[in-house]
Amino acid sequence: MTSITASAATPPRFELAEGILWDDRFDLVRWVDIWRGQVLSGRLDKRLVVDVTAIEIGQTTGAVALADDGGLLVAAARGLAVIAPDGALSFGPDLLGRRDDVRLNDGSVDPQGRFVVGTLALGPETGTEILLRVSPDGTTEMLRTGIRLSNGIAFSPDGSTIYHVDTLANTVSSHSYGPGPFDSTEPWLTVLADLPAYPDGLTVGADGSLWVAQWGGSSVRRHAPSGLLLDVVNVYATQASCAAFVGPNLDTLAITTAQEGLDDWTDASGAIFLADTGATGLPVDRWRGSTTTPYWHEQKDAAK
């Protein structure tokens, strides 16, 4: 096992940064600041993320994803939102039904261009959180129930396995995956459990290894799919929330951190960090729906 130290690439000014990824079409790092309702973008300049701009959506931003048409897909408070290439913002229907004490959290696009996103409770833990899959035409399927706090979602390099974090259960689990129907009768398998701190966001490297952010653990841990610990990337921030490979060669590990819940901290919590790990990542999959005429526009037109 090797130990690596990441360096701060921005000032420590984000309350709950999450969902970082690389947009290869525009050479931008993108992420969200959840409670501030911001979708953020910045340019890599050597060891810094600079020229950071924010799009305000007026509600929580659990995650951001890239779309095929050059726009952005956002996990908003209770449904999806899209930001079209011209900047137009549109909100989709509520996906969460009667519960008013819940919001969407982390999400990721699968190899088929569908968005997989989970929930967390806004009040006391319920143990009834869910993992949803939303297709570009609006078809919504339940992939998992009985979750304590749904967090990071990622896929193996060949797309045959989905990985999912339940933060409060302190587990990373896996399930077979593919373009066909999801087999809800097949049990999820625990890959990692009883980590030193709460697992949060995760990404999968080009070699199939799992990079798991440690909320409360000031680090990102790299594990083999078997669970074997391979590397630890340390950050000067208590709450590491997400990691992703960024840059034209996808060879720089970017790590978001958070200030949420901290008092009188003296580290760089709330900064974005960068690290050279010797590993590379995978290009992110893109949402195959339209951000100019999203499915909810088409449904309204069909109902007229």
Write the SSE topology.
Blueprint: E1 2-5, E2 7-8, E3 17-23, E4 28-33, E5 38-45, E6 48-56, E7 63-66, E8 72-75, E9 80-83, E10 89-91, E11 102-109, E12 115-121, E13 129-134, E14 140-147, E15 150-155, E16 161-166, E17 171-176, E18 189-193, E19 198-204, E20 210-215, E21 219-223, E22 229-234, E23 239-246, E24 252-258, E25 272-275, H1 295-303
Parallel strand pairs: 1-22
Antiparallel strand pairs: 2-25, 3-4, 4-5, 5-6, 7-8, 8-9, 9-10, 11-12, 12-13, 13-14, 15-16, 16-17, 17-18, 19-20, 20-21, 21-22, 23-24, 24-25
Structure description:
- This protein has 304 residues and is mostly beta strands.
- It is 3% helix and 48% strand.
- It has one domain (2-303): Neuraminidase.
- It is built from 1 helix and 25 strands.
- Strands 1-22-21-20-19 form a 5-stranded mixed sheet, with no helix packed on it. Strands 2-25-24-23 form a 4-stranded antiparallel sheet, with no helix packed on it.
- The mean pLDDT is 96.
Question: TL;DR?
Answer:
This protein has 304 residues and is mainly beta.
Q: What is the fourth-level CATH superfamily? A: TolB, C-terminal domain
Number of helices: 1
Total domain count: 1
Q: Can you tell me the residue ranges where pLDDT is under 50 for at least 5 consecutive residues?
A: none
Distance from N terminus to C terminus (CA atoms, Å) equals 61 Å
In what order do the strands lie side by side in the largest sheet? 1-22-21-20-19
Q: What fraction, in percent, of the residue positions are helical?
A: under 10%
Nearest-angstrom radius of gyration?
18 Å
- Give the overall form: globular
* Helix/strand/pairing category: mainly beta
Overall CATH class: Mainly Beta
Amount of beta strand: over 45%
Which architecture name does CATH use? 6 Propeller
Number of strands: 25
Name the average pLDDT: 96
Biggest pleated sheet: 5 strands, mixed
CATH topology category name: Neuraminidase
